[in-house]
């Protein structure tokens, strides 16, 4: 709960800190004189920076519950009529861009993005981007559920080469209905998840979002598992020379569990993650030895430079993979070069 000290002030010093102490906030916790300023900060903490130009009606009431989960922000909101906008000043104050997936449970909300005006009524699914100058108006009491997703987390899975400013989707059939049910379920179970659940929730949300947007724009999205695999492999290749590279490190850097990392590689490569890493290292050692220069770097130096830390183990693995010891392979490569 917000302390009575915070409620008496016209504006909290740190709205994110204020929100972080509780899972719920309501106008009942704030004096009438502080209501407009406090509502502005609550909106910014949950939906990015917005300017609320009009004073709120004295009978304005709002209630929110919210949570960070797996890099997502889940928000359920009940509020009375109000309005606001995001122009250049507000856009410049956002630390990172977001996409919002919003399900209107009751009431209506009107958004103007550029020259286009969209209206979402009860049962509609609304997707909007924090990158665009936007105005909103809530003409009547509104109940909505929202998931805020960092754009960087979803960008690779949205249709490439096509601008996406947002849209309203009827949520009664198809993938939009599935996404709507997903948003509703996450927000309804907001208190039931742990951080491991959060990673799964994030993956599912991004996949459903990408599919809904792609269908709207007539595109075919990249399967999410393929995208996750590519990112994990890119990270591995960047750190391939590091002998201390671990599966836990790879998973953490890519926002997934070690179990999901194993599943990705098993399904796509028919190999375990460690086997795939070892194969990449062996191939690069083989390439280095294939120059056939006998007075070049020591075999042990080559092995160690590609992440192996035991010379005998490397030799056994190399012979098992290529049918020759590293020294025999290098000597044969040298003879082949001489013959050429």
UniProtKB/TrEMBL annotation:
MF GO annotations: DNA-binding transcription factor activity; sequence-specific DNA binding
Domain of life: Bacteria
HTH araC/xylS-type domain sequence ranges: 230-332
InterPro entries attached to this UniProt entry: AraC-bd_2, AraC_XylS_family_regulators, Homeodomain-like_sf, HTH_AraC, Tscrpt_reg_AraC-type_HTH
Entry keyword set: DNA-binding, Transcription, Transcription regulation
Keyword Protein biosynthesis listed: no
Pfam family, one: HTH_18
Keyword Cytoplasm: no
Protein name: Helix-turn-helix domain-containing protein
Organism: Vineibacter terrae
């Amino acid at each position: 709960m917000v302390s009575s000290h915070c409620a008496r002030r016209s504006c909290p010093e740190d709205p994110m800190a204020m929100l972080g102490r509780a899972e719920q906030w309501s106008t009942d916790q704030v004096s009438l004189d502080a209501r407009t300023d406090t509502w502005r900060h609550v909106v910014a903490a949950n939906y990015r920076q917005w300017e609320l130009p009009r004073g709120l009606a004295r009978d304005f009431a709002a209630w929110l519950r919210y949570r960070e989960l797996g890099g997502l922000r889940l928000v359920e909101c009940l509020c009375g009529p109000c309005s606001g906008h995001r122009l250049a000043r507000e856009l410049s104050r956002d630390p990172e861009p977001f996409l919002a997936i919003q399900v209107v449970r009751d009431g209506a909300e009107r958004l103007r993005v550029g020259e286009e005006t969209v209206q979402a009524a009860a049962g509609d699914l609304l997707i909007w981007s924090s990158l665009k100058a936007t105005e909103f108006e809530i003409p009547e009491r509104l109940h909505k559920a929202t998931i805020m997703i960092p754009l960087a987390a979803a960008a690779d899975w949205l249709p490439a080469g096509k601008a996406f400013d947002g849209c309203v989707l009827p949520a009664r059939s198809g993938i939009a209905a599935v996404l709507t049910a997903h948003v509703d379920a996450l927000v309804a179970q907001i208190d039931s998840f742990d951080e491991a659940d959060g990673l799964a929730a994030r993956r599912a949300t991004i996949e459903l979002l990408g599919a809904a947007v792609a269908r709207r724009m007539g595109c075919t999205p990249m399967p999410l598992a393929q995208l996750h695999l590519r990112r994990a492999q890119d990270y591995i290749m960047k750190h391939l020379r590091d002998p201390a590279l671990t599966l836990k490190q790879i998973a953490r850097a890519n926002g997934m569990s070690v179990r999901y990392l194993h599943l990705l590689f098993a399904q796509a490569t028919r190999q375990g993650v460690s086997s795939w890493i070892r194969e990449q290292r062996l191939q690069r050692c083989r390439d280095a030895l294939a120059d056939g220069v006998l007075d070049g770097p020591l075999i042990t130096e080559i092995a160690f430079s590609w992440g192996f830390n035991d010379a005998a183990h490397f030799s056994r693995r190399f012979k098992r993979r290529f049918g020759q010891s590293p020294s025999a392979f290098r000597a044969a490569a040298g003879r082949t070069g001489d013959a050429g």
